[in-house]
Amino acid sequence: MTVDSNKLFINGDWISAGGTFPIHDPATGEIVGYAADAEQSHALLAVEAAHTAFPTWSKTPAPKRSALLYRWYELIMEHRDEIATLLTCEMGKPFPEAKGEVSFAANFVLWYAEEAKRIYGDTVPSNEPNKRITVLRQPVGVVSAITPWNFPAAMVTRKVAPALAAGCTVILKPAEQTPLTAIRLVELAEVAGFPAGVFNLVTTSKPAEVGNVLTTDPRVRKVTFTGSTEVGKLLYRQAADTIKRVSLELGGHAPFIVFADAEIDLAVQGVIASKYRNAGQTCICTNRVYVHESIAASFAEKLRQAVSTLQVGPGMKEGVHIGPLIDEHALAKVERHVEDALAKGATLLIGGSREGEQGYFFQATVLNHATEDMQIATEETFGPVAPIFTFQSEEEVLARANDTPYGLAAYFYTRDIGRVTRMQENLEYGIIGVNDPAPSVAIQAPFGGVKESGLAREGGKYGLDAFLETKYISLAFA
């Protein structure tokens, strides 16, 4: 399939950007579509449209905002297979996984369609008989939403749906590698009936230039970004001059800890679910597997056997578990991490090489005897490689797991309730999976990290907070 979408969506109209840029299928390298290539001037038009639309949208009754969001949800679900096909073609993940992502994305819209009607204020008791204290929650204003390539549907709706529910207007800039999914979602939002200027789309091959407008223009009052820590820090600095609200969901380096009393088979399947989903290209995926030394040999062999059943190939091919990496840069990084680990003493149990003669495929890989001096121990690999480290005590592995500037997700397996309590309270991460490799599946839960993994939370009732101002009113009367 080839998609030619050479228009930007600004102020309710699809307008030409004057040029386009190609989108490539990472499984084949073939061009699967074109997207409009916006300049800074187009970003300024989008900001103006959103700024103009905000006063009316922010005062639109919550039930009406809810109804529009619900209609958008229905349209996404009606077109789920079509969107999933686009997603697989431009990003590479297996089609069943892509369908799951589209459903996940739609459920964010459904959730915030419901939450739009539950944005409450407070009446606070006063210490004076002739005063009344009221607290209002009001939309923050124009929102810039900058989304990544690894979840082209879910990251759009997880940001845009709560913003719209809160009464904010939005400018969406999707990743240049995967704009086609976002374009289709915006087309369906237009069909749903959102007013002109409320939801705007700017695609570009020049993210730094366009992003500079979206983070520095004083009319933009909120920036929400998912991506690398390096880029997140840059956007944070750019937004600082106008004191914008900023939500950042950044990189991770998740530990996966398997204690001696864990059910080994369940832990092995947990690593498979966490590490190899989306070819390891998720911010919360396992990066370091810590296994108690008493069970390390058995665990390593069971993991090797389980990984040997995983099929690598194009996402539209039936039976494929692991699709391609997004591009050559990503593939080279994975290859570099594996080579470095092997040079420093790791043992290759399975995989370890590029796969096929075309596309950006890497074999599902397990490395044993990993150590802290390896790149893979400190850098986020973002690929299908599981390095196994061993440990002796709870105190030791806790210190090693926390010895990182990142703090997004962590996992551990044990049947000791005391250890569960100690670990969940002392791991320095925003998301903890206890005998659970997929804690982010619940849209009602808060998603986000600590330390250099980000600011604020997305999902659930917590996801609205970043898009709402709190206004305190004190009324005195005679």
Question: What is the strand and helix layout of this fold?
Answer:
Blueprint: E1 3-5, E2 7-10, E3 13-16, E4 20-24, E5 31-36, H1 40-58, H2 62-78, H3 80-91, H4 95-115, E6 122-124, E7 131-139, E8 142-146, H5 154-166, E9 169-173, H6 179-192, E10 199-201, H7 207-216, E11 220-226, H8 229-240, E12 245-249, E13 254-258, H9 264-275, E14 286-292, H10 296-307, H11 328-343, E15 347-350, E16 354-355, E17 361-362, E18 365-368, H12 375-378, E19 385-391, H13 394-402, E20 409-413, H14 417-426, E21 431-434, E22 454-455, E23 468-476
Parallel strand pairs: 1-5, 8-9, 8-11, 9-10, 11-12, 13-14, 13-20, 14-19, 18-19, 20-21
Antiparallel strand pairs: 2-3, 4-5, 6-7, 7-23, 12-22, 15-18, 16-17
Helix pairs in contact: 1-7, 2-4, 2-5, 2-6, 3-4, 3-6, 4-5, 7-8, 9-10
Give an overview in words.
- By secondary structure, the chain is α/β, with parallel strands linked by helices.
- It has two domains: 3-250 and 453-475, Aldehyde Dehydrogenase, Chain A, domain 1 (3-Layer(aba) Sandwich); 254-442, Aldehyde Dehydrogenase, Chain A, domain 2, CATH 3.40.309.10.
- Helix content is 38%, strand content 23%.
- The strands form six sheets. The chain has a seven-stranded mixed β-sheet, sandwiched between helices. Strands 10-9-8-11-12-22 form a six-stranded mixed β-sheet, with helices on both faces.
- Helix 14 links the parallel strand 20 and strand 21.
- Helix 1 (40-58) runs parallel beside helix 7 (207-216) and helix 9 packs across helix 10 (296-307).
- The model has no long low-confidence stretch (mean pLDDT 97).
- Keywords: Oxidoreductase.
- Residues 14-473 form the Aldehyde dehydrogenase domain.
